[in-house]
Design brief:
One of its GO terms (cellular component) is cytosol. By secondary structure, the protein is α/β, with parallel strands linked by helices. The protein has helices spanning about 10-20, 35-45, 55-60, 65-90, 105-115, 125-130, 145-160, 175-185, and strands spanning about 25-30, 50, 95, 115-120, 165-170. It binds adenosine-5'-diphosphate (ADP), shikimate-3-phosphate and magnesium ion. Adenosine-5'-diphosphate binds next to helix 2 and helix 8.
Length: about 190
């Protein structure tokens, strides 16, 4: 089956698509949780546009996230992220994967909560560390002890990610399985207020 995109059961996709309606789906969570990877898969399954806010920030600024942090600092990055997020969430349905700090910033969190159904991809430290340690594209982890930094971020941020409408556990299983669980979580909102 190598090279083929695995498709979720048609009924699951239909139910999730109907439950989403015109809303955006916004993925939040810590670095390495799989927001970018799972968001892309979910958008493919739902046949709605996929946008990764970090990619959009890189496109409009013509700079990498690392270069933006280095040149302007985190505060400026957060201001840009907030503006981009507000614009991206103006119309739906879309799947929007955010950068890990977006939902933590109060102003950006307001845009996100207004702009769509939020889902927290939650993962434990070992899973996150295994994934993020393979790449050096994340400026916040350029510290003396990046694993400890990640753990500190977990402690500070998890209570805020918990404000998301839905939570799905991201773990060491096939991405398609986690994507199906996201679809099931969306489908389960049918008829709810969220
Ligand atoms: N089951 C899985 N779910 C999500 N990501 C996974 C999984 N297995 C491996 N990965 C990989 O983990 C890495 C980090 O994921 P990414 O989507 O960039 O996370 P985030 O956007 O939340 O920082 C990617 O290279 C992704 O392909
Ligand atoms: O957690 C954070 O504050 C950040 C997460 C990154 O995105 P990912 O969560 O997609 O890695 C990126 O936006 C930037 O490096 C800051
Ligand atoms: Mg990402």
């Amino acid at each position: 089956m190598i090279g083929l995109v695995e498709t979720a059961p048609a009924e699951l996709v239909q139910n999730a698509r109907a439950a989403l309606g015109k809303r955006n789906l916004v993925l939040v969570g810590l670095m390495g949780a799989g927001k970018s990877a799972i968001g892309r898969l979910v958008a493919q399954q739902l046949s709605v546009p996929f946008i990764d806010s970090d990619h959009e920030i890189e496109r409009v600024s013509r700079m990498s996230i690392s270069d933006l942090f280095a040149a302007y600092g985190e505060e400026e990055f957060r201001a840009l992220e907030s503006r981009v997020m507000k614009r991206l969430l103006k119309s739906g349905p879309r799947v929007v994967s955010t950068g890990g700090g977006a939902f933590i910033n109060e102003r950006t969190r307001r845009h996100i909560k207004r702009g769509g159904l939020t889902i927290w991809l939650k993962a434990d430290l070992d899973v996150l560390w295994e994934r993020v340690s393979k790449r050096d594209t994340r400026p916040l982890l350029k510290t003396e002890n990046p694993r400890q930094t990640l753990e500190n971020l977990m402690n500070a941020r998890y209570p805020i990610y918990a404000e998301a409408d839905l939570t799905v556990q991201s773990r060491d299983v096939r991405k398609e399985l986690v994507a199906d669980e996201v679809l099931a979580a969306i489908a389960a909102t049918a008829g709810n207020q969220i």
